[in-house]
Write a structure and sequence with these properties.
elongated; three-stranded antiparallel sheet; single chain; 3 strands; alpha+beta
């Protein structure tokens, strides 16, 4: 069971890091469309670079803050979900996989022009 807990903890930490990277990439983008693209690319790249056994991470990007007027505080938020395989551990009573999710937000520059 310790091995299962360790794998889940490592997966969650990797997704937290990927979500933070993606939220930051979105928040420094110049437009809503480029923010969504940058966040998705950053999330997938981060998951890949951390060698997380996650075949198809799901990335959800909330860039609605780009629609607010300059001078209004806003954020970009990214949620990443990943199915972590556990079947290879062969521990009785442990399911074949579990879904791990992480969310992170990053502030959009309050006084920058938004498109």
């Amino acid at each position: 069971m310790i091995i299962v807990g360790g794998r889940m903890a490592i997966a969650h930490q990797a997704l937290e890091s990927a979500a933070a990277d993606a939220a930051r990439a979105a928040s420094i983008s110049r437009s809503q469309a480029s923010a969504e693209h940058a966040a998705s690319e950053a999330a997938r790249s981060s998951v890949t670079n951390q060698h997380l056994a996650c075949a198809t991470p799901r990335v959800s990007v909330d860039t609605s803050g780009f629609r607010s007027r300059p001078g209004t505080p806003a954020t970009a938020t990214v949620t990443i979900s990943c199915r972590v395989p556990l079947a290879d551990l062969a521990v009785p009573g442990v399911p074949g996989s579990r879904i791990v999710t992480a969310t992170s937000s990053s502030p959009i520059d309050t006084y920058r022009e938004r498109r």
